[in-house]
Design brief:
Elements (H helix, E strand, L loop, with lengths): L1 H19 L22 H22 L4 E5 L15 E10 L2 E10 L8 H8 L1 E7 L5 E7 L4 E7 L5 E6 L5 H8 L9
Antiparallel strand pairs: 1-2, 2-3, 3-7, 4-5, 5-6, 6-7
């Protein structure tokens, strides 16, 4: 039920953006947020969390990418696979079959305070942003594209200083990426 509410909110927001048509508006999120609490975890704690992230991906991808099959989650890590003490971000690849084609996404979960760019800086200096949507918890989700590499991305800036982003090399997946990026199961703070 919760995933349905998140998906509905993201899709409603994207539909409204289609009517509004700009990515320049930055809903009320101050960056960096005040009182960001750094997170310091052991390798064992991070591995437990990574295992939970993978389980969540296995559960949600067939619902978010309606009918996705053969969902395969990669190992979580940083520049290389695997987690280590006090890691401040971790990411993984997910491969699956969707609408008859093989699709890959990359997810990165950043600890509070690790991602320095504000939504505005991200859009002005690092990406071609196509939409900005307030999420239902005080954050914003920024959609962007990189035409050179064929990447579509949703980046959720959260009021606790976390940033979670999901990207795909498959056009037309913006709504699904936004749902995944706003999923609070992907967090460093639990």
């Amino acid at each position: 039920m919760r995933m349905h509410k998140v998906m509905t909110a993201a899709l409603t927001g994207l539909a409204l953006l289609g009517l509004a048509g700009t990515a320049s508006a930055q809903p009320g999120l101050t960056w960096p947020p005040k009182d960001v609490t750094p997170v310091h975890k052991t390798k064992a704690e991070l591995q437990e969390q990574a295992d939970g992230f993978s389980a969540r991906q296995q559960q949600t991808y067939p619902r978010v990418f309606r009918g996705a099959e053969n969902v395969s989650t990669g190992n979580w890590g940083g520049e290389a696979e695997g987690v280590f003490d006090d890691m401040q971000y971790m990411g993984n690849l997910v491969s699956f079959t969707y609408n008859g084609q093989r699709v890959q996404t990359y997810t990165q979960v950043n600890a509070p305070g690790f991602h320095a760019w504000s939504p505005k800086e991200y859009c002005e200096e690092h990406a071609k942003c196509t939409a900005t949507v307030s999420d239902h918890r005080g954050g914003v989700t920024v959609l962007s594209e990189n035409e050179q590499f064929g990447i579509t991305e949703a980046r959720n800036f959260r009021s606790n200083g976390e940033v979670v982003w999901v990207q795909s090399w498959t056009p037309g997946t913006e709504a699904q990426l936004a749902v995944l990026a706003t999923d609070r199961a992907f967090t460093f703070t639990k």
